[in-house]
Write a structure and sequence with these properties.
mainly alpha, 0% strand
Length: 195
C-alpha cells in the first residue's frame, strides 16, 4: 500500500506527472496504467475492511468491473486526454477517477469474477487496444490538439505492441500452466495400469 501511495504522490505532487503527460505514449501507456495500478493495490488493501459491503453490492464482481471499464474507456477518448493536458481541473479529475473509479473497483472485483467472465474482460480489453492502436495508426488527422501526429502514430504502435504482449502472456498458461496439466491428467488416468 505504501508503494501505491508513493506512486500517486510522485505523479500528482512532482513534475513526473506532467513529464509523462507530455507525450501520448507516456500519458496513455505509462501514467494512466500507473494510476490504475496504484488504485488496484489500494483496493486490495482496503478489501478486507469492507468485505461485508462488497458481498452485498459486488458479489460476482460484475458491478465493479463495469464501473472500471467505463472509467478506463472515458479516459481513452482523445478529447479528455487533451483536456487533462490543458486544464488542471480535468487533470485532477483524471487522477481521482482512474484511481477511485477504475483501479479500486478492479481490485475489489477481479478475484470475484467467474473465470469465464475474466476471459471475456481480457478479450474485450485486447480488442480495445487493437482497435485504438489501428485507429491511431491509420488516421491522417490528429485526434489530440496537444500532441503531434507522430506522437499519435507512436501511441498506435505502442497499443498494438502491448496488445500482442498481453496476448502472449495470457496464452502461455493455456499451453504450459495449470490448464495444460489439468488436460493431461485425465489422459494419464485413463491409461490401463499393468496388472
Amino acid at each position: 500500500m505504501l508503494i501505491a501511495v508513493g506512486v500517486l504522490l510522485a505523479i500528482i505532487a512532482t513534475p513526473l506527472g506532467s513529464t509523462l503527460a507530455s507525450t501520448m505514449v507516456g500519458h496513455v501507456l505509462i501514467q494512466i496504467p500507473l494510476l490504475g495500478a496504484a488504485g488496484f493495490v489500494l483496493g486490495k488493501s482496503l478489501e478486507p475492511k469492507i468485505e461485508a459491503t462488497l458481498r452485498t453490492w459486488n458479489a460476482g464482481g460484475i458491478p465493479g468491473i463495469l464501473l472500471a471499464s467505463l472509467a478506463i474507456a472515458f479516459w481513452m477518448i482523445p478529447r479528455w486526454l487533451d483536456g487533462a493536458v490543458t486544464s488542471t481541473a480535468v487533470d485532477m479529475a483524471k487522477y481521482g477517477s482512474v484511481v477511485l473509479l477504475a483501479g479500486v473497483p478492479l481490485g475489489w472485483s477481479w478475484d470475484r469474477l467467474h473465470p469465464i467472465a475474466r476471459g471475456v474482460v481480457k478479450i474485450e480489453f485486447l480488442a480495445m487496444l487493437f482497435r485504438l492502436g489501428w485507429l491511431y495508426l491509420i488516421s491522417p488527422d490528429r485526434f489530440c490538439n496537444n500532441y503531434l501526429l507522430t506522437d499519435q502514430v507512436w501511441l498506435g504502435r505502442g497499443l498494438v505492441i502491448v496488445g500482442i504482449a498481453l496476448c502472449i502472456t495470457w496464452l502461455i498458461p493455456l499451453f504450459f500452466g495449470e490448464f495444460s496439466q489439468d488436460r493431461a491428467a485425465p489422459a494419464e488416468s485413463g491409461r490401463a495400469t499393468p496388472g
